[in-house]
Amino acid sequence: MSDAVTENVTVPGRNGLHMVPCSLIAQRASKFSSQITISKGATNADARNIFELLGLGAGEGTVLTCQANGEDAAAAIADLVDLFESGFEGHAHRGSS
Fold it and tell me: Edge-to-edge strand order for the sheet containing 35-40?
C-alpha cells in the first residue's frame, strides 16, 4: 500500500501559473513514479499535464494542494514545494526586464 503525501503551496509571481511554470512542474513531476495531483479547490490537475495545470487558472497568491501517492511520494512533493518556493527562479529563462 502506498502512502499519500500532501502539502499546500502558494503560487508565486505576478503572472501566476502560465506556460513556463506549468512546463517546469510537469518536467519535475515526470521524474517520479508516484501519481501527483495539484488541486485548486475542487479542480484537480495531473502534475504531468501542462494543459490541465494551465486549466487551474491559478494566479499569484493562489494556494494549491499538491498530493502524491506512491513509493517516492515524499520526494516528489518536496521537489515540487522547492520549485514553488524558489519562485521558479533559476529554472526558467532569465529575463533582464
Answer: 4-10, 63-69, 35-40, 43-46
For residue 21, the SS3 value is: helix
Q: What is the pLDDT of residues 2-26, one digit of tens each?
A: 589 999 999 998 899 999 999 999 9
Per-residue model confidence as pLDDT tens digits over 61-81: 999 999 999 999 999 999 999
> Among candidates 41, 42, 25, which has minimal Cα distance to 77?
25
Active-site pick, 18, 30, 31, 89 = 18
Phi, psi values for residue 96, rounded to 5°: -115, 30
Half-sphere exposure of 28 (CA within 13 A, CB side): 26
18 an active-site residue?
yes
User: What is the set of domains in the chain, with CATH numbers?
Assistant: 4-85 (3.30.1340.10)
State how beta strands 43-46 and 4-10 pair.
unpaired
Which residues fall within 8 angstroms of residue 97, CB to CB, at 6 or more apart?
none
